[in-house]
Amino acid sequence: QVQLVDSGGGLVQAGGSLRLSCVASGSIFRIDVMGWYRQAPGKQRELVATITRVGSTTYADFVKGRFTISGDNAKGTVYLQMDNLKPEDTAAYYCNAARVWPTREDYWGQGTQVTVSS
Length: 118
Description:
This protein is mainly β. The chain has strands at 2-7, 10-13, 18-26, 33-39, 46-52, 57-59, 67-72, 77-82, 91-99, 105-108, 112-117.
């Protein structure tokens, strides 16, 4: 099992920045990829960004050029630097750790709220 604790959310004005942090504990050797998802009220949870054990990153189109993911899967840490925040970025952000082989296993943080005012 893997336990995740995410933090760093808050209230910020449009154009501002926040940095989210996530620390994993437990069987972190099982982690192949870590990332961030978000869920706004009334909407489905969506992928924001991921980083693999070898450092490859992916981003959702709506955050490219504004958000940067970093971290070290082997150490169980992942961060999300969010710049030029927009009101539509308002959501609960969830840290995710996943094992993809031989079977998919997903672990989730408790979520941290990001609110961007206009």
